Amino acid sequence: MTTVQSPPAPPTAIRPKVVARTGLYAVLAANAAVVTWFAVQAGFASNALVVTGRFAGLYAALLMAFQLLLVARLPWLDRRIGMDRLTNWHRWTGFGLLWTLVGHVVFIAFGYSQSSSMNPVSQVVDLAETVEGVFRAVVAMGLILVIGGASARWARRRLAYETWHFIHLYAYVAVVLAFTHQIAAGTTFTASSAATAYWYAVWGVALGSVLLGRLVLPLWRNWRHQLRVEAVVPEADNVVSVYITGRDLDRMPARAGQFFLWRFLTKDRWWQANPFSLSAAPDGTRLRLTAKAAGDGSASLRHLAPGTRVFAEGPYGAFTAMHRTRPEAVLIAGGVGVTPIRALLEEIHGHTVVIYRVAGERDAVLYDELRELAIAKGAELHLVTGPSAPDRLAPRELAALVPDIAQRDVFLCGPPPMMNAVLGTLRELDVPKPQIHFERFSLAG
Predict the structure, then answer these.
(1) Is 157 helix (H, G, I), strand (E, B) or coil?
(2) Phi, psi of 56 (to 5 degrees)
(3) Which of 93, 106, 258, 380 allows an S-S link to 317, with CB 3.0 to 4.6 Å?
(4) How distant is the alpha carbon of residue 113 from its chain centre?
(5) Is the entire prediction scored with pTM above 0.90?
């Protein structure tokens, strides 16, 4: 494939990831300050527990909106932080939201029960029956408890992805119920026209971001580019490459190292979306993915017919040369993790060392392409074979292959056990953390 080459971008003083992360923190902190100011302006109740509960509810509403922003798949954030990290932040923010909501309910219940003859549980029941919007809040709380339980690590491991995802969709119902509760019963919401406008803006931006990033943008891009399967090429007994063509692909904002969620619109798999990385740098005329037959979805790719319509969500991911901090690089691939590494080698500038770790030479998918690219670009290519033990990429072995590795950017992609081992090796070799780039693509789906 002929690559549309862009001039090398010099390493920047402020990394894109730092800019995006700092921006998110600043937005959250600024909104927390605004929420606090509006709450103070609305006045305090005489009961300290009720006051604490109201503050907890306000911050919970803010965290809920922030959670939506984290999973909205906005291109600017995704290219700088990556879907895997945004998803992880969303998960931990969710646990913070859960405990903040528990605090909201507990403090409100105990606060009101101090001025009545009811116990806290009876007080919650009474509020749900007599105060408009409270029953909706109780239902929302129940949904969030179920979602939180399903997202706990022990439960997540036991649930099929489809089941977990279906349960997670109820979060949108909880958001609507929580918002209507805030409209009906939130004293801060109705304290002033400015506070009302502010909260409508917060929820509008959060829900609008989800609508834009997860629905409007994918629909528009697929309508614009009209993607279809051009060819299916076997690379090995259990590995296949799929070439995708379409309209105006030179205007598709994809980069080497990124991935899409691919749906091939056949009668038996239109409902499946699988995350596959680009295995070649986009050249403006076609896209290519290469997949190993690890499940029913990827195994069926070799049976796709040319002309099959494709619906692709993306491009996603921060595993790109945009995040380089040094003029020279090391690309480390394991198994089929070679696909984004091969694409990066095509795009990346400066002296590069490529290390491809496989069990045996027969497993080295796309190795001939890697070798040709390495020769054309003056890169070093090392094929490391053998069983997982002893570790062929332990500190001593890796330092022998790349003596100056601490002065290079390191891009890493492979199976989770291999990645964890190499990350430990890089720490032992004192490679600075900002120079280590990886994504856990298993989270992307």
Answers:
(1) coil
(2) -60, -40
(3) 258
(4) 43
(5) no
Q: Which sign, positive or negative, has the C-alpha torsion 424, 429, 433, 435?
A: negative
According to DSSP, residue 169 is labeled: T
Map tokens 């009474």 to a residue: 126
DSSP-assigned beta bridge partners for residue 438: 412
Q: How far apart are CA 376 and CA 354, in angstroms?
A: 13
**pLDDT tens by residue, 209-218:** 999 999 999 9
| pLDDT at residue 299, rounded to an integer | 65
**DSSP tally for the chain: helices H, then strands E:** 16, 11
Matching residue, tokens 């190993």 = 292
User: For residue 284, what are its two tokens?
Assistant: 């403006």
Q: Within 13 Å and on the Cβ side, how many CA atoms surround 379?
A: 28
- What is the secondary structure of 183-207 as a DSSP string? HHH-TTTTS-HHHHHHHHHHHHHHH
Chain-centroid distance of CA 361 in Å reads 33
Helix axes of 120-130 and 134-151: crossing angle, nearest 10 degrees: 120
Residue 364, Cβ density class (10 Å: 0-12 exposed, 13-18 middle, ≥19 buried): buried
C-alpha 268 chain-centroid distance = 27
Among candidate residues 347, 238, 335, the one with its CA nearest the CA of residue 282? 347
Q: Which one-letter amino acid corresponds to residue 279?
A: S
